[in-house]
């Protein structure tokens, strides 16, 4: 005896919960009227499992429909399955709802995991966007696990700290580079000491310190600025990866007080005859990014440095002036092009051509290479 296979519309009308769920699973990827009708019925079903499947499957595929749903019901259902089953699909709905009431459940989930897979990374980002100041230390504590599916999980963690900033977080950031909590007066000296690594340093520890420095820049403030200036100082004997992090931190501060020190750092780090441990073209490049981001206040100090260097002007300084593209920077570049130094003129023409295609990197993965 043969049974006629039920259509999705017949399944959604069934008294059997599993059949109604099957209707959703069969159609949630379809973009037609039938799928929409099934979603409409499933999202108000009397059984929370059916509603959950409709939300976590169809609604995640069609988030524009969320405003047509009972958001309170969605939240209660999704929180239920997220807390009891650690459902990653339920978290997707919570993320769509953008409701900070999800935070306690998210923290509980992160505390119970040892691997930060994509879903957990999204949870950390959610915390960074919605968490209050008391959650900053918790986000930092995730670094202690040192178990990551993706090498840039550390970036996610540190970037998520920016909106949860308070004094405890900045002290914890400093602590990640082997500092005890210190007063503002002592922090620069202690930071300098902490950057002098004795023995081997793991790749993880370097990435951790790199992102500590970048995050300090994103957070901003006097204490962060002081620490970053210490980090790029040639007298500070620290690993090149951490120096790069400090340069990128200053990129985010946009603080013009860093200009002179950034210029000195470029001059030293890009010299081919630099002492061992100082030559680092990537660090020099990151310092130039910081000068670009500071903008016009960088121009006159760079011009003064370039006048000293003629005819062997550092190409990074020329690039910064070309990209800032202010009246004063354009006038100086034109003066250099009107000079009698053919190699310098050729360099400027090439840099101007390259600058048309220049884009700031979307991420700074090169920082750890």
For this entry, give a set of tags.
mainly alpha, single chain
Write the layout of secondary structure elements.
Layout: H1 8-12, H2 17-27, H3 33-42, H4 48-61, H5 71-85, H6 88-97, H7 103-111, H8 118-130, H9 136-141, H10 153-159, H11 167-175, H12 184-194, H13 203-219, H14 222-232, H15 240-253, H16 259-269, H17 281-294, H18 299-309, H19 315-324, H20 327-337, H21 342-355
Number of helices: 21
Q: Helices and strands: which structural class?
A: mainly alpha
Averaged pLDDT: 79
β-strand number? 0
Rg from alpha-carbon coordinates: 27 Å
- SSE order in H/E notation? HHHHHHHHHHHHHHHHHHHHH
Fraction in beta strands = under 5%
Write up this protein.
- The chain is mainly α and 369 residues long.
- The protein has 21 helices and no strands.
- The chain is elongated.
- The model is unreliable at 177-193, 195-199 and 273-277 (pLDDT under 50).
Compact summary:
The chain contains 21 helices and no strands. The chain is mainly alpha-helical and 369 residues long. It starts with 7 loop residues before the first helix and ends in a 14-residue tail after the last helix.
């Amino acid at each position: 005896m043969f049974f006629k296979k039920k259509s999705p519309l017949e399944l959604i009308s069934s008294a059997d919960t599993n059949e109604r769920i099957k209707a959703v699973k069969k159609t949630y990827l379809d973009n037609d009227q039938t799928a929409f009708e099934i979603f409409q019925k499933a999202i108000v079903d009397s059984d929370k499992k059916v509603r959950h499947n409709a939300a976590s499957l169809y609604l995640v595929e069609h988030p524009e429909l969320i405003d047509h749903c009972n958001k309170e019901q969605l939240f209660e259902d999704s929180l239920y399955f997220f807390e009891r089953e650690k459902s990653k699909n339920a978290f997707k709905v919570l993320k769509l709802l953008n409701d900070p009431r999800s935070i306690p459940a998210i923290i509980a989930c992160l505390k119970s995991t040892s691997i930060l897979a994509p879903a957990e990374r999204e949870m950390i980002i959610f915390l960074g966007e919605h968490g209050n100041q008391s959650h900053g230390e918790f986000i930092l504590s995730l670094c202690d696990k040192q178990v990551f599916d993706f090498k840039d999980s550390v970036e996610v963690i540190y970037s998520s700290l920016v909106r949860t900033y308070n004094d405890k977080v900045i002290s914890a950031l400093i602590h990640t580079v082997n500092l005890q909590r210190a007063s503002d007066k002592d922090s620069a000296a202690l930071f300098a000491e902490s950057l002098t690594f004795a023995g081997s340093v793991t790749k993880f520890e370097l990435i951790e310190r790199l992102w500590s420095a970048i995050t300090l820049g994103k957070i901003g403030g006097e204490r962060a600025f002081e620490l970053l200036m210490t980090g790029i100082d040639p007298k500070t004997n620290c690993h090149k990866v951490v120096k790069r992090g400090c340069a990128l931190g200053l990129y985010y501060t946009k603080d013009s007080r860093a200009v002179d020190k950034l210029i000195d750092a470029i001059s030293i780090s890009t010299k081919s005859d630099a002492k061992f441990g100082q030559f680092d073209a990537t660090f020099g490049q990151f310092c130039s990014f910081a000068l670009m981001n500071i903008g016009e206040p960088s121009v006159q100090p760079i011009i003064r440095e370039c006048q000293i260097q003629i005819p062997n002007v550092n190409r990074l300084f020329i690039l910064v002036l070309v990209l800032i593209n202010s009246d004063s920077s354009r006038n100086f570049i034109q003066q250099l092009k009107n000079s009698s130094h053919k190699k310098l003129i050729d360099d400027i023409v090439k840099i101007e051509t390259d600058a048309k295609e220049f884009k700031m990197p979307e991420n700074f993965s090169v920082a750890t290479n």
